[in-house]
## 1
Amino acid sequence: MEEILLKCAVVDDSSLQRLSIVKLIKDHPHLKLVAEYNNAIETKNGLLDNETDLIFLDIEMPILSGFELLDDLPNKPQIIFVTGKTKYAFKAFDYDAVDYIHKPVNKERFNNAVSKAINLFKLKHQNATPEDEDFIFVKSNLKNRKVYLNRLKYIQALGDYVKFITEKDNFVVLATMKSFEKQLPSDRFLRIHKSYIVNLEKIERYNSKNIEIDKQKLPLSRHKKNNLVEALSAIQ
């Protein structure tokens, strides 16, 4: 198996904090530092020139926050948030973060987060087949679970959790609908209701109030009906 070497960038407005992360990166055998940035604007421009697999990202920065930076990136590397505040941990789920580390960072916690990034990199890039390209990873029971899109029927919101209904089984994860609405291809999946995102190819029938998937009726929001008709027409 080819040795894994993740190209890394550190983004933090504090030079001391950057220095501590840089040292940990340089001491790690599977990481290579390619850039340091002290603000989000510099990072956005720098990522155009530096191929990056993993970013160690602060959240509270001048001008643009770490979250706002990610909102502006069309192609996101893996993200490990490194911050002095714990209050953003839940929001980090919306950005599919690999991990969320609280400052000050110790070596053991750092290496644990990096291990997650390395494992995810292996899953995505090694021994890939055409079928492997058509999936997303979902964090379930502290592990990254592969979900093939052609087997996913629909997703249901359950408070702070999201339920996945697939052809094989059902499972629940701690996440938000918004995070998966961003990940799923819009030409194949549609949010038909505040609590449901459906696989358009799995819809068997519909009317003005419901859609039906595998004999299961799901509510259709009135203002989503036109979107549904257009989306189904596009895939026919």
## 2
Amino acid sequence: MVAAGDAGKAGVAERLGIEPGMVVQEIGWDEDVDDGVRADVEERIGGDLLDEDADDVVDVVLLWWREEDGDLVDALMDAITPLADEGVIWVLTPKTGRDGHVEPSEIAEAVPTAGLAQTSNVAVGADWSGTRLVSPKSVKSKR
């Protein structure tokens, strides 16, 4: 139910293209993640987020990623594994000036190596930005 004051204002989950009933996996959770984003996604899908150990096929992966988290290509390759054919990965990184900020160029360099394409960026809460990644259409058409 949308409150009267929120009419016309899409929630974070809706801006991320998350629909009711979708299966969403969360990777990279830590104390610094935005719990408001997590709560909005869980409310939108009508259930809990799957953790990184889940074996289910998922529609969306939320990958919380910080500068010190290691190799982004490796993380993206792991995130692709459970992803449905039309699935989406959102790389959620701290905004500029925040601890753990990841340069956009680092994401841009990792994406093609992982066999993905970057499509858009959105603000995700006060401290986080999201980068939307999908499998390129050319890869899908060859299946």
## 3
Amino acid sequence: MSVLEKRLADRSGNKCELCGYEHDLQIYQVPPTSKGTLDDSIYACKNCVAQIEDPEKVDPNHWRCLNESMWSEHLPVQIVAWRMLNRLRSEGWPQDLLDMMYLDEEALTWAKSTEETEDEAEKIIHKDSNGNILADGDSVVLIKDLDVKGANFTAKRGTAVHRISLVWDNAEQIEGRVEGQHIVILTQYVKKTK
């Protein structure tokens, strides 16, 4: 165990400083300018580190632990907590925590300094009922009968909708043609087809 790891283990009580897990712990140097010191590193479990480093692996419910760790007295823990809450803020509850969090100007600059800019974090991601990411031009199938307001017909379950377009400002809506009508469909009622 390196001197840094020993100091981090002592600081954290041999627990992940983010979620409190006690196994598979490792040093995570907080980018972008970490020098591998106590002031720019955290002690974290492999699960947390994997999710920090790969946005595709993020399980929003895992990060409810930030409700406690965001109040850490150690700045690198606060920075990582802020970044993860920022990444997840479209979930709703992380935005509430972000609103409570305070970082001084220097810390906020550090928190925002990774390649994951706010634009990236704000990017709206459309997902179908199974959690598959949808893109413009995809084909989907309706998974329940939908009454189409204003058009006086019901879009039947199993109806294929080809070449959908995403509603750019709402992750829960897509647009497509059903029975010749251009309609808005909620993503929770569709399943992506290959």
